[in-house]
Write a structure and sequence with these properties.
This protein is mainly alpha-helical. It contains 9 helices and 4 strands; from the N terminus they run H-E-H-E-H-E-H-H-E-H-H-H-H.
Length: 271
């Protein structure tokens, strides 16, 4: 083990010697671990990806460790201590942010869900989990380190988010705050329409529900949100007629055509 360590340290000294030659004024030392305890470290600093020091260190690292694969991080923070080489290697993936997770949960894992939204959510959450493996904390303090706390909390949130999204994708039954647009039940759709269209006549609600159920049976991806928009438009149209004789069915047909297009009329009830 000692001979292996000596060989690595020798390689590092040669590489750093080359760097000193390339950058006049640069001075470096390499210490074995047992001789490095208690030595100071430099504060974190930020450089651009194309900085000369990054290119030089990349070449040295590749010579010692082999080919590296830099990921897409336009800027990064790293620490160059006096101890050893580069324990926090530049070029790793950008750390995930809590806001990214909040956005995907809000946009894709709300009350109204379907397979496409949930599948995209699971993929994004797993991408964030992979990036979380490279999470970095620049604050090195040991007291009231809120940055460290945020990083730990993000890990817990990723666990909860993946559990929620995978469970929602697996469960096709709608219940409570989990409504699968792509697997709706008639009574559930009717209840949601009634909740969102409190002033609608029961005939309108029943008609819209039957329209949605016929579309679902034909594997058309209309949702209860489309039904709510149809109902609102039909109610508005009937109100504009100001009491003049108007049957709700023609108004509903007009609303369906306006909201979903002419082809949607194939699912309306005839007669």
């Amino acid at each position: 083990m000692a001979s292996a360590q000596a060989g690595v340290l020798g390689d590092l000294r040669r590489m750093l010697g080359d760097l000193e030659s390339e950058f006049p004024g640069l001075r470096s030392r390499v210490y074995a671990k047992d001789a490095a305890e208690g030595r100071p470290t430099m504060e974190p600093f930020e450089v651009s990806r194309d900085a000369a020091i990054v290119r030089a260190v990349n070449r040295a690292y590749e010579t010692v460790r082999g080919k590296i694969h830099l990921l897409a991080a336009p800027r990064f923070k790293t620490v160059y201590p006096y101890v050893g080489f580069v324990p926090y290697w530049p070029g790793i993936a950008e750390s995930p942010r809590k806001g990214e997770l909040a956005d995907v949960m809000m946009d894709n894992v709300g009350v109204f869900r379907d397979e496409a939204l949930l599948t995209a959510a699971v993929a994004k959450i797993r991408e964030l989990r992979e990036r979380y493996r490279c999470v970095r904390v620049s604050d090195r303090s040991k007291v009231f380190n809120t940055e460290l706390l945020e990083a730990r909390e993000l890990g817990y949130l990723l666990d909860c988010a993946e559990t929620t999204a995978v469970a929602a994708l697996t469960r096709t039954e709608s219940r409570g705050a989990h409504f699968r647009d792509d697997f709706p039940e008639r009574d559930e759709e009717l209840a949601i329409l009634r909740e969102n269209l409190p002033f609608a006549d029961d005939k309108i609600l029943e008609y819209v529900t039957e329209f949605l159920q016929a579309a679902h049976a034909a594997e058309e991806r209309y949702t209860v949100r489309d039904g709510i928009n149809i109902g609102r438009y039909a109610i508005k149209l009937l109100a504009e007629l100001d009491g003049r004789a108007a049957a709700p069915v023609p108004a509903l047909h007009f609303a369906i055509r306006h909201v979903l297009g002419e082809e949607a009329l194939r699912y309306v009830r005839r007669g």
